[in-house]
Write a structure and sequence with these properties.
By secondary structure, this protein is an alpha+beta fold. It is 21% helix and 30% strand. It is built from eight helices and 27 strands. The strands form seven sheets. The chain has an eight-stranded mixed β-sheet, with no helix packed on it. The chain is globular.
Amino acid sequence: MASGIHIWIVVGLLAAGCSSSDPGVKAVGAEKSSVSQESAPDPEPTVPTGPAVSVPPTTAQPDPAFPETTEPVLPNDSSGVGDELFPDLGNPGLDVTHYDIDLSYAPEVGMIAGRVELSITATVSLEQFTLDQLGLDIESVLVDGSEATFTVTDPELIITPSRPIEMGANFAVSVVYTAGATTIGSSAGVTAGWFPTELGSFTLNEPDGARTWLPSNDHPSDKATYRFAIHLPDGYTGVANGDLVSSEVSSDVTGGERVWIWEQAEPMTTYVIQVLTGPFSVVEATAPSGLLLTHAVLTEDLEVMQPFFDVTPEQIDFFDDFFGPFPLDRYGIAMTDGNFGGAMEHQGRSLFGRADFVNGTLGYLQQLLLSHELGHQWFGNAVSPARWRDIWLNESFATYAEWMWLEQTGHIDLLDEATNNLARRQDGYVATGDPGPNDLFGFEVYAGGAVVLEALRLTLGDDQFFELLQRWVADNTGLSRTTEDFIALAEEVSGRDLTQFFADWLFATDLPDVFPT
């Protein structure tokens, strides 16, 4: 893609000019927002100490997180892949390598009609196998083009192919289904699934919501590539992860329909899938580093969102000095009109609620949200947790990145922030490295876990700490990894036994009163 900017215009919306604070970045043919912008203060920056250790990225491929066996798997006797926090998630014996997803969404009735073809490698011999699904109306199942017997027993789709599948065989499963655009209350205490909004919809899948609209191997241990075809009434935009390949009006549907094709070429877990519908403009630009930026915002908000487009390359340039080169082929921000009370690290394009950004001010909250979700692209997306108990590898690291950026912009002093949160940790009852399902999104995993990382930095020193973070990403991009993998790498980089450190800081419920010196 050439440098500059390109906008895919939403058909049916009026077009007008849109100004930009950056003369090299212009929005052409988009509806101008009536919301005024306010300039954010420009505080004196303070750069966190630490070297820029140069470690080249790797092109590692996804691998199963659980060991292979030659024993046949009978999923109706045993569900899930052994995740102790979510025992029904995942599907034994399957390594899904690709999803070809075809969705039609009818916003006026809140219904989804879908077809998904999964390319799968059998990691064991299979007489039966399962896919995760919850509340779907399954119409048909094909295995390598032949009809298969299936049973729908929430939360599983149990499939019996016409003949057993040998270990190591590659095969395709096609499922045709319908679903209501709905959400579930997860055992993690959050709402997940497909969220209808006033103007369209969005997905929020973490930790177990993808199965409510997509038959899948809905566990972070299994990463795959994706193709999305999103059929919508003309005038709606469909947005998904990856590269926007085409947007075509179909002549086969009365009243008009547009099909939006997106391709996600890098391995991705199901919980960071992005599907958005509504009156969006897709804005493509190139960062000074050459990284492709693909944003998706409501067309009426194009002008007011410009400050957030502008700060994104600055944040990437800051973080890559500490975490290594940006690990994905693109990045961007997406703004939904839905209100979900936070933000989400969809892979390659983080999701935010426009209500937090619509005044156009780049203040403390906006800097916090943008930096946290950007940090996830290294920690959580490029390298994903192999089990949900490993979520600190996502959230503690992203919170630490957030603290680094807020110090850079003059909003906090990182050591003061860590010290204040260490004091709060004394009242904690959950170990950062051993949360329960209700603790996945709690203090001990977020700020409490960032405290652990500050203690690790002070123990190792800046050189080894940031070398460790860069090695973690460079060695494991495209993979799902465990806490034990991180500890092993920390000991390799530091050349010391860190058993006592992690016992005292990561796996303890009552942490030391002061940081290491």
